[in-house]
Amino acid sequence: MLEKQEILSLLRAVADGNVAPEDALLQIRESPFADLGYAKVDLHRGVRQGAAEVIYGAGKTAEQIAGILGAMGARGCRNVLVTRLSAEKAASVARSAPLDYHADAQLAIAFPAERERRGRVVVATGGTSDLPVAEEAALTAEALGSRVVRLYDVGVAGLHRLLAHLDELMSARVVVAVAGMEGALASVVGGLVDCPVIAVPTSVGYGASFGGLAALLSMLNSCASGCSVVNIDNGFGAGFLASRINLMEGAEPPHENTVS
User: Which domains does the chain have, with CATH numbers?
Assistant: First the structure.
């Protein structure tokens, strides 16, 4: 599967006379999807969006996931994300496709390959209980090519913990704020930084948190400008959006006097 940058490189090679137009056409015109019966695998997702199709593991059998990965692997897809994947399914899928599995985030990266990581995404959590959702966000952003800084357990119950990391926060291109309970972390971070903040409400909390609904409403009503909100426990969505913002062409580099 060709991605955007690969197609641009291919077209430049044609323009330079290093690749015949017929050979370039052959590489580009491959079928845009593979019909497996139970799934139509989007093989041109990387052309349109810059990243391979992501597999949502919940509700799919291990055999179905392995079949989808087989089709993608055959077309050269690398660093394919499989989200909400149980350890049991991961063990089964790993027998047919190479997987880098992270049990805490229930996320796997299939056909893992080294890639350059650029920019800076900060993923911050209110508490340790938010870590699974935060890791889903962090690993997603890393797989898509972003450099990630993790700031865990820096919630507003001990505000000094967050303020001790102002350098990391203020050098970020985007911050992902992950919190349950009342979800106040996003508003506090939004009042400190000059970059976009993606708020992720989690289902962590006592009864009146209503499974994350209280945090969701708090984040939606944030008075801090520049905050957007994803769905409850949607670490993947936050990580994907954060990486897209971070890697936008023309984005300013991090301040040079900050840690890398």
Answer: 29-110 (no CATH), 118-246 (3.40.50.1970)
